[in-house]
Every structure is written in C-alpha cells, then in structure tokens.
Amino acid sequence: MLPQAHAGGAITAVDGTAARPTIVLIHGAFADSSSWDGVAKKLTAHGFPVLSVANPLRGVASDAQYAASVIGSVKGPLVLVGHSYGGMVISKAAEGNPDVKALVYVAAFAPEQGETVAGLAGKFPGGTLGDALAEPVSLADGGKDLYIRQDKFAQQFAADVPPRQAALMAAGQRPVTVAALNETSSGTAWKQLPSYFVYGTADKNIPLEGLRFMARRSNAKDVVEVKGASHVVMVSRPDTVARVIEAAAANK
Prior knowledge:
Number of strands: 10
Number of helices: 11
Oligomer: single chain
Distance between the termini: 24 Å
Shape: globular
Radius of gyration: 16 Å
Strand content: 15-25%
CATH topology: Rossmann fold
Order of helices and strands: EEHEHEHEHHEEHHEHEHEHH
Largest sheet: 7 strands, parallel
C-alpha cells in the first residue's frame, strides 16, 4: 500500500507515477483532514499515493499559497481535490503547476474571477448555514472566526452521517475566518484543466442549484449528483467520491 500523508507539521514528498498520480485532498471550512479518511482508504487500497493537506482556512490567497507550496513538494502528476471552500483553494493553487492534471470539486466552490464564497453560497436560495453559525469568535488580530453550533452541526452539515460520528466532527471542526468567506478569488484553474464534480442533492451549505451552476459553467468532464447526500458527501459516500477521483486520475 502506498503512503497516505496528513500535512500538518513537516511535509514529506510523495512520489506519483504516470499510472498513479498523487491525489491531493484539501478540506473546507468546519472540517479537517480526517474528513477525507474514508476516501483516502479507498484510494490507497487502489494504489494511489494520497496527501491530505491541513487547510489553514485563514484567507483564499494565503491558503492557496500554502497549498501550492505543499503541492510543490510532490513529484510527478497530481490530481487536486477540494471540498467546499477547498474548491476556492485548488482553483488558485493549481495555476502555474504543469504537474496538475485534473481538478475534482467535492460539494465545492469553483469561482470565477472576483467571486466570493459568501456570494456564491447566496447566489441561489436554499442555503441555511447562516442560521446554524455560532457567535463569531474575536481574534487578537481583529479578525473573527466562525464555527457551526454543535447542536446544529449534524442537521446542517452532516445529516447523513451516523450521529456519533457527526458529534465528533462537530467537536473537532476547524473554524474559518469571516474575511476568508468574503475574499475575492483570483484563481480559475478550472478554465484550463479538466474538472469533475460530485455533490449531494441535500446539501444545506451550498444550494443544489448553485452547485449545478458552477458545474455547468466549468464545462465539467463529469458531474455526479448523489441523491440525499449532505454537504460532507466524502464522509457519507466515500466509495462514490473515490470513484470520481479515480476517473479524474484516468482522464475518463
């Protein structure tokens, strides 16, 4: 079995091959690297090197710069996979890296130049994240961190995840800054690279029509809608998400 790495401290490069590119997984807001564990298990079992990056969730440009640095330590071809806000990150981090062969958006934002997470999430009706957020946490630098209320986390974020697992996810959620959700994107790598989309039809963070809009706009090579799946489709349906990623790796 090839190695799986969680990027947090020192980064160890993972070597991909032409047959098995390295899959780089980037989580979104209110999640962490462990949200990819089910998907990573499937991918590594099929011979793919996997790197699960700890996304700082501080700002689109700085997070993308960090991700690009991590990705730059990996030799060989790459497939970048972003969940939710992580889609903003891969859309910028992939730019200028010829080793990136495809992008996979997992219930994720695929922004046009100048768009924000907040703007895209509100472009179509149906999202309920705002009502589920706790009071912002004030930071020493003047910024504010956002969390989902633990008593609303399962219903909002992970309705199709077993309750005990959803409770652990709520306790371990990573906050995102208010500034990050309102920072404009300058990355549109989906215009140059094959893109793949997979998302649930019961997503409450990004309205279904918003996800469909971004998939259509990107001329995605493949779009998989998972009936009844929540925003964390990679947690509840890891087999399906892994299959989409493997299709991207094979350029199918």
